[in-house]
Amino acid sequence: MAPGNFTRVTEFILTGVSDRPELQIPLFFVFLVIYGLTVAGNLTIITLTSVDSRFQTPMYFFLRHLAIINLGNSTVIAPKMLINFLVKKKTIFYYECATQLGGFLVFIVSEIFMLAVMAYDRYVAVCNPLLYMVVVSRRICFLLVSLTYLYSFSTAIVVSSCVFSVSYCSSNVINHFYCDNVPLLTLSCSDPYFPETVVVVSAAINLFFSMIIVLVSYFNIVLSILRIRSSEGRKKAFSTCASHMIAVTVFYGTLLFMYLQPRSKHSLDTDKVASVFYTLVIPMLNPMIYSLRNKDVKAALHSFLTNPCSSFKSM
Questions:
Q1: What's the distance, Cα to Cα, between the start and end of the chain in Å?
Q2: How confident is the model at residue 171 (pLDDT cuts 50, 70, 90)?
Q3: Cβ atoms within 10 Å, residue 155
Q4: What cellular-component terms does GO give this entry (predicted)?
Q5: Host H or E run for residue 138
Q6: How far is CA 161 from CA 4, 45, 245, in A?
Q7: Considering the entire predicted model, what is its pTM?
Q8: CA separation (Å) from 62 to 142, 181, 198, 265?
Q9: Which of 64, 138, 146, 180 has CA 20 to 30 A from 114's CA?
Q10: For residue 85, which of 17, 172, 140, 144 has the smallest C-alpha distance?
Q11: Is 173 helix (H, G, I), strand (E, B) or coil?
Q12: DSSP single-letter state for residue 57
């Protein structure tokens, strides 16, 4: 077909999690609860680690930014998703779709590398405890977080620009509940080879380097724990990493399932389930994982709820 016959797409239609009409209202309430818990949990972590003097350490500094990222990731996806459960025509404008994709990429790449930074933090805490505050100084903390955000923002610009550099015409139905790379590129009426390559290479590089950092960090952590003679010492050392290990396992496991499955077995419906997990469920679970296993967080939360003024740092 000649380019002149193409009708440029100005809006997309999202199929949503399910196209069954009888499930729209029940699903709306399910995801409203999930998003509500995500907002409440992550805002609690952000508030506690900001105002309580007990949490002014590198570990909680990184945890605060992980909570900010989780909150941002869910907020990019959930509000539009919830609205679409209640309307008949689930449309999203072209530039709104591009913005949503860009925002999603910023937060998902940030989370990938923030978890890697947190693994490095736990490595230093367990393997070099005497040098912890020197190696992971305040300046280094700000540098690592700044580089994480800068890299994720740059990646989002490059990848989303590539995805929207192709032509979209005629078909505008996205088989997803938000604007994501793979379902968008399947709608392209021009050659999607280059943007598909950019998406795959970017995802592979990000996962590879972040996982190398995590695996090397935890390999050394395990070796260090095994050298500890007392069982109480090993238990204490392991407890400092347990919450992060759980969060890392759940998050990376979902991403690996999503992006590295064989192309012949690739299913957009399967992708939806995985996407629900890492865009909405994991951001809800992370505050619980870090809070329920942390006595200091539970004590601070109780103190904050009973006497908020006592938790604020003295200025």
A1: 68
A2: confident
A3: 23
A4: plasma membrane
A5: helix 138-163
A6: 23, 34, 34
A7: 0.90
A8: 9, 28, 29, 37
A9: 180
A10: 17
A11: strand
A12: S
